[in-house]
Amino acid sequence: MRQLPVFAAFGHAIKSTRDNLGFAFHVSWPWMLALVPLNVVEGLYFVPLGTGDGVHLAGDAPGTFLLAIFLIAAVNIVGFASIAVSWHRYILLDEVAHGWQRLRLDAVVWRYVGNMILIAAILTLASIPPVLVLVLIAAVTSPYLMMLGIYVLIVPMVAMFYRLGVKLPGIALDRHDYGIGQAWADTRDNFRQLVGLALLYLAVGLAVGFAFWILQGILGRLAGSLGTAVSVVLQVGVNWVMTILGVTMLTSLYGFFVEKREF
């Protein structure tokens, strides 16, 4: 079984993201035209982002609130799945999407979305036993221990996602002969390596998130709702870059474990 070189894999993902960021924007901006306004609306009216104006609709119209949050989340998931499919195909097949291909919503994208939901369900079920243990520990000791345990639990969950998620680039290539079980088998004996990869990704995400949190607070205090709108746009951009990096990592893992490529 191949052993993943953690730092080489992460460095390759960083370099690939950086070197191909122009294409990432090329394939993403049509979706961003739809996603940015939706996320601005969500930030201004549904989610508190420093101005205190958010979630006021939750108490007045909880049904509308939940429906809006669900629809915005669904559009984001489908949009990023469409971008991910185009990105996988570009990296692995050198296929460049043009025109309306960048807004693809074909069967491949819907399979991608369905398998993302399936993987999320598997991870949720897998996390139930340790979360119950953490709840019992919190009941006996302190809720802070439970929160600490949940943060620690995130790392192996991300590593499990990588193992299962190796299937996703295969879906983007329109493969029907490569399942989650095969992805799990191909990545066995690499759990520690994937935990290391998850830690590196989470460290970058936390650093970027902390910097953005500071900027968000400054914008909220200086410009009120306008600052909130600007911060939402910036947040979409940050989420986009981190998503592209995450998708690139999955692409690299598929290339390494399935296609036997080297970094």
Task: Set out the fold topology.
Elements lengths: L5 H14 L1 H25 L10 H5 L1 H32 L13 H34 L2 H23 L1 H6 L7 H7 L4 H67 L6
Helix pairs in contact: 1-9, 2-4, 2-9, 4-5, 4-9, 5-6, 6-9
Overall description:
The protein is mostly helical and 263 residues long. It has helices at 6-19, 21-45, 56-60, 62-93, 107-140, 143-165, 167-172, 180-186, 191-257.
Key words describing this protein structure:
81% helix, single chain, mainly alpha, 263 residues
Oligomer: single chain
Structural class: mainly alpha
Strand/helix succession: HHHHHHHHH
How many distinct helices?
9
- What is the share of helical residues? over 70%
In this structure, how is the largest beta sheet organized? none
Global morphology:
globular
Residue stretches low in confidence (pLDDT < 50, at least 5 long) are 48-58
Q: Compute the gyration radius: what is it?
A: 20 Å
- Quote the distance from N terminus to C terminus: 17 Å
Short description:
By secondary structure, this protein is mainly α. Helices cover 81% and strands 0% of the residues.
